[in-house]
Amino acid sequence: MRELKSITKDDLNQEVTFIALLIDVKIKSTKTGGKYADLTVQDAGSKQLLKLWDVAEEDWLQRPKDDFPVIEVNALVGEYQGKLQLTAKNIRQVDKDSIDMKKLVPSSKWNFDQMRQWLEEFRDRIQTDPIKSLINEMVFQEPYYEKFCTYPAAKSVHHNFRHGILQHTLEVLKYCVVVATTKRLNQRQVDRLIAMAFLHDWAKIIEYEPLPSNKISDEGKMLGHIFIGSHHVMNKIELLEGFDREDALIILNGILGHHGALEWGSPVLPKSVEAQILHQADKLSGDVESILSFMQEQEESRETFTDRLWNMGTDYYKGGIS
Amino acid sequence: MRELKSITKDDLNQEVTFIALLIDVKIKSTKTGGKYADLTVQDAGSKQLLKLWDVAEEDWLQRPKDDFPVIEVNALVGEYQGKLQLTAKNIRQVDKDSIDMKKLVPSSKWNFDQMRQWLEEFRDRIQTDPIKSLINEMVFQEPYYEKFCTYPAAKSVHHNFRHGILQHTLEVLKYCVVVATTKRLNQRQVDRLIAMAFLHDWAKIIEYEPLPSNKISDEGKMLGHIFIGSHHVMNKIELLEGFDREDALIILNGILGHHGALEWGSPVLPKSVEAQILHQADKLSGDVESILSFMQEQEESRETFTDRLWNMGTDYYKGGIS
Amino acid sequence: MRELKSITKDDLNQEVTFIALLIDVKIKSTKTGGKYADLTVQDAGSKQLLKLWDVAEEDWLQRPKDDFPVIEVNALVGEYQGKLQLTAKNIRQVDKDSIDMKKLVPSSKWNFDQMRQWLEEFRDRIQTDPIKSLINEMVFQEPYYEKFCTYPAAKSVHHNFRHGILQHTLEVLKYCVVVATTKRLNQRQVDRLIAMAFLHDWAKIIEYEPLPSNKISDEGKMLGHIFIGSHHVMNKIELLEGFDREDALIILNGILGHHGALEWGSPVLPKSVEAQILHQADKLSGDVESILSFMQEQEESRETFTDRLWNMGTDYYKGGIS
Amino acid sequence: MRELKSITKDDLNQEVTFIALLIDVKIKSTKTGGKYADLTVQDAGSKQLLKLWDVAEEDWLQRPKDDFPVIEVNALVGEYQGKLQLTAKNIRQVDKDSIDMKKLVPSSKWNFDQMRQWLEEFRDRIQTDPIKSLINEMVFQEPYYEKFCTYPAAKSVHHNFRHGILQHTLEVLKYCVVVATTKRLNQRQVDRLIAMAFLHDWAKIIEYEPLPSNKISDEGKMLGHIFIGSHHVMNKIELLEGFDREDALIILNGILGHHGALEWGSPVLPKSVEAQILHQADKLSGDVESILSFMQEQEESRETFTDRLWNMGTDYYKGGIS
Amino acid sequence: MRELKSITKDDLNQEVTFIALLIDVKIKSTKTGGKYADLTVQDAGSKQLLKLWDVAEEDWLQRPKDDFPVIEVNALVGEYQGKLQLTAKNIRQVDKDSIDMKKLVPSSKWNFDQMRQWLEEFRDRIQTDPIKSLINEMVFQEPYYEKFCTYPAAKSVHHNFRHGILQHTLEVLKYCVVVATTKRLNQRQVDRLIAMAFLHDWAKIIEYEPLPSNKISDEGKMLGHIFIGSHHVMNKIELLEGFDREDALIILNGILGHHGALEWGSPVLPKSVEAQILHQADKLSGDVESILSFMQEQEESRETFTDRLWNMGTDYYKGGIS
Amino acid sequence: MRELKSITKDDLNQEVTFIALLIDVKIKSTKTGGKYADLTVQDAGSKQLLKLWDVAEEDWLQRPKDDFPVIEVNALVGEYQGKLQLTAKNIRQVDKDSIDMKKLVPSSKWNFDQMRQWLEEFRDRIQTDPIKSLINEMVFQEPYYEKFCTYPAAKSVHHNFRHGILQHTLEVLKYCVVVATTKRLNQRQVDRLIAMAFLHDWAKIIEYEPLPSNKISDEGKMLGHIFIGSHHVMNKIELLEGFDREDALIILNGILGHHGALEWGSPVLPKSVEAQILHQADKLSGDVESILSFMQEQEESRETFTDRLWNMGTDYYKGGIS
């Protein structure tokens, strides 16, 4: 079995066998009424296009596209316009339970155990007990903890991989704490800021469906993670004894306001310095990751500039990288 | 005792006595170190400026401006630049408990009993039981019902008077039902639309402080009525048996989306035809009321156009009214 | 002869015959120099794609696309990617005069006689004689009346069907009158508001070419229905005896301002409460119709949300409809 | 009799007498109930503030502010904060008929006879007879010609003086013809462009009231000069024999589109190269004049930059002028 | 040898031979693994698509697309969808040194010698010696003069042809001088305005690569012609004796500000009347040229309106041109 | 001598003597022709209003307001509307040379020696020699070093105090380095990022006049610190041997792009991940400081929210601070 990224031009005109997720199917037809398909397949390290000529009556290719079957593929390695092109010779569906799905879904490059340890260290910086309890119950307990550590933080653009919320939250926590220290916020402000950073994207465990789907749930589309998260946090706060009312208002405003502007989906503006720091730390984490992953994707092309990265509104210079 | 609006140029150079709320105090000083004050006083029918020369040590004039004392005023009626000007000769504070506050706060011109009856009629058009229960428990029960029937719907601009939420909700309900009927929505859509219309500004009973304050509460500023309302409705729905999940998503999205655009403070867009109707009915009710009350305020001036009404971005033609 | 919407998967692999308008032709070529065509055909109830292999020297397929020939088609019913696909076996052009064109053009679902009766009822609510004369001469007389009752109200998006202006005008009239009643406008205001509502889109009978073309005329593109309508109304008013000058200014401003904002093509803003009501009633009618017709179009797809509806800037939830 | 601009610090502590228009009155009161007034007076060359202490019962000071009485003033020349300040000792109203109003209203610095000659020369460049007739009848005949040669082109900002439309139209004509020549437009295009330039602000003779009022008429506010002008031109064109339909559409579109963008009040965009040239020539004339007149106004201040010129959104550097 | 624009339907089914630049190659593949290519070729007068079936191992077709080989083509003239279609029978690469490249690149229609003479005349209107020296050294000396006279002024849209900077600069100079004369600027202002006009797009000789590439250089993309030009001019000014400091600030501000608004890439706004004139003259030259060249391109189509011209945001009326 | 912030209500009705900068003078007049003045005075710790009744012929009060005389004041402490009010009894001008100006100008709260040490440490993290030389010559050498360490970073809003550039640069450096480390940029990227951070606001030593003026220089207003800084850096880079061209382009683009968007005054967008990090670190430093200093200013007021902070577009919650 080969990993997709191990297949190179050294394999030209040879056959390879690999296991992958089938994540997109486009069926096309020829004049003579025949059908062929452009498949997109993926494992943890790479995506690849796969031609399938003469599509037969394989029902499973017609299934709803959110189903993501696991397939074993035998394919011929060719080349087209200077790029590798695989042509399927045989495809068979594989039982998902027999497969370690981690091998088929891209994942954070950061060490998972290290990330969980860091997460605990940030929690332990909180000195206000009710705020610490809030984080313990919202993040470090099931049924939340596993999802929080596993889900992606976005549908595309940035941190859209396994452990995405976890890595993104750690980045945001780090940036927030550095600003708090530099600007000498007091401990109560720091505690609120850490809590907000932990919770700002928490509701993405409800807004998204589990990987490999990466689809937004109905609840996510209709209500959004900003409302869902604030709603759960407000309910949890009301159950915690001794939670200061002003802390509650500031933390909830921070979650509601973390997109930083009404037109970006926050129903209220950040009304505390903590909330403004959170917003900018969140934007910094997302934007920088989106540029880095985009430049890596486009490393191979011969141009000196990347294509336009839509969420940043510009292309990037590839000179001076290596 | 005189009502403020009964004082006219027929009273020139005479003394009048009236009871009013003191809603604003601006203290100014003269070169010789003396102080005088520009007071704003109000009763149910009108607002009036009141000059107070030689401000003494009346402590209560220095109190936080949100306190709104009730005062009995003896004043001389004068004229300045063609407008009435009252000059205080004597002011004394009156015990609030001895006064019927309704006489001092502007109120809806619609008949209160009639409005409550209409409100029940709209509720009774709902045929889906769990939705009807939602409205009964959120609107027609205490501790909500009295506030819902009493609070203003805005700080300024439109429906910023006693029974404001009630009148505005009735207007929105009426417009929504007419559109639903004209466009032949089915009963389930109608039920959801009526529920949304009932609940869209419900949380203003939390966002505002009680009249005569008309101030936004801390919770209102930090979280906003859109979040607060959706939060309470979601909690209530979860307690109601048999509430359809799709109805819940559509009703909550309707409340979250009723401002119609992210930049107007909705964290998600209206995602159903009901939600879009609600948004436009809400806007229609607010805008039309704000134009009508503004034109009435400016009726007296000699210009053929009003001043610019800031929320509508234009002035209005006063020709052809009478 | 079959109606297009009656053709279903029950007809698979069989031949069907139908009459339709040919509304679009895309000719494509194959490597071997052959040509085929993707045709779009339409009757009153549906649109359908039609493959035509081996396009010969049929001149009429090359004609200007605004000509819309009527064709009789004999086709084989197939399936492609889960959708019906018709493949033409024989196409012949049909004399337009031999056909009832109403069967080939989509039309309002409202009863035509009922609509005309309603239109008269709204006119009869006007109590100011010169205003009533204005409506009689601009709407209820030829050469206007037939066009007013027949033309579509838009090129796409909403009310873009036979009787479109008529249905849209009735919706706007209804919404306007409800608001006027609720907000207790006086009779003179109601008269002006009804007149504006009648006339706001009147000039679309000049801006558009007759169905089935649905094309904007040169005059329409260069001058727009807002100017053209106001121009004709102003000329008509000057011919009517006793037309009040203030009524004239308000009605003309209402027509000029009915798009509600400069950036939407109104050269002046609405300067009366009537004009603002008209603008919002117009928007309500257009937006709601566009959502409803779009959701109906997309009823069949298996997704829980529609595609993005461009004029509304969002997709719509399909849950909870049936 | 002195002209206002001839009064300088050389006159300090002396009395001066002058005739001026009274264009603004602000009455203020003192604690003791007395009244004083800040008057603004103007003659052809300058504006000046004038203090009037102890305002008595002069009725004419209370009149509607659009009346603009002519007054003869005897005043004491003082200084305040480094600026001249006049204090009225005596004011008497003067019969308007006894005064040459030209001396009291600012006027174009260009020679009037020269301007009229240039206007004829531009007309005579038109070689298409019906277009030339259009200009002759709309501009060079009464009741239009005198107003066209006299009215200001704006309420403020630019060309807001006697002969303003005339001077502005000549500037626009000149810029248009230079562009047309440089870019080698054909004669028919040149004829249309000259016609548009003549007519684009023509309706300001209806939109404004006559000087010295400089007020916008009710018709102007409700309908705007863009609609009014296009309406009159369209009616005139229909009376002219042999007027080419395409010329008519382009000229009307040019007038409707001369603000260049919907958000600037044009209901349609410029749809011909002539219309785009007209828009930019119009903007160039207006903007450059507004900067020059503003810099001249602010010449005296000691700052190296002017204040912010609101319509241009910036301040201007005064270095390097002399 | 044929020029491309000389090939018409009169040549149908015949073979033609021509020399052209190969400016784009799109390789496509067929099901059977074969390859074909859509080539774009160009000479001074026209662009043309060229089909190449059965692409072999011609390495030079795979080269970086910025290389622009010169090719001699033997092709069959066909027709497809009413348009000419050339199918290559033989292609061979030609040595660039053997070819007069002017014949393969589009060029200004203005006479080159005339343009250079005009350029000198504008320079000679400058009466301030250091400013004249600045223009002499920046424009009329090598290594700048040849590039200034040869480079295009844009990548697309307007003046994107040989001698583009030269023609565009002359247009801008002409418009600037007419405005300066009309508005009676003083000689020092005129001198600065002429200098700015000469220099505003000067740095496009660095921002662009030489024709036929028409590509933006790395330096151009990273720094932009606004910064690069101002930087070089500032350095040059510091070397010139007696250059007035205020002139320097105004000229540099004019270059920095010539896009007229921050959002169009000027880091500072125009702060002098000269700078505002320059900005508008620049926009006028660019916009008018873009409309004229676009309308010429679309002359042949049968529609009465052009397509939408993206930089102007609208389509154009083709009536009344001939 | 008292410091201004030491004067409290404990001093009521007593006389105090202090030395301060006179930073604003507003002269007003009374009806009787007398003059009084509202003065604003400042020392390092506070600003204070000061009434001066009966302004005599003190010439120095009329001087250009940028002169900022040092004054010794003897004043009576009073109270007005609950706030301290000082009334001058005697004012005399003091020779600036006899005063330690540091005591009269607000200054960074960070330790100055510590800041300079940190600055060196950041420089020493650079490992690319030519980049390090650039920083040494642009920052650590005179005539730049003293200004870089002394000037404010803004005219208002944030870091508008002595050592403002220094403190702001250190904040930006810190945030940049944390992001670079977290996201594992390579050493060359880190070196460029540190260089950009050092240089991004460098040109404010030219854009501003020295404290206490805090005025923008003519060069600053006409050219802006973005151009001026990039210009000097580009000239310096050209003098440095071995400076990599790609590093130069990225560093210059980073300085040009550090405002992050065209509409915020950057003529090009950030085209590298380093440049985007710099932009966001810059914004974070400025915004957070502006909120903190604004909240501190408004600490005393009795409201639960601050006024609106104009650059952030919102007010801030004062609950939960202490």
Automatic annotation (TrEMBL), chains A, B, C, D, E, F:
Gene Ontology biological-process annotations: rRNA 3'-end processing
Regions that span the bilayer: none
Keyword Nucleotidyltransferase: no
Entry's Gene Ontology molecular function annotations: hydrolase activity
Matches recorded under SMART domains: HDc
InterPro entries recorded: HD/PDEase_dom, HD_domain, YhaM_exoribonuc/phosphodiest
Entry-linked PANTHER family: 3'-5' EXORIBONUCLEASE YHAM
Protein name (record): 3'-5' exoribonuclease
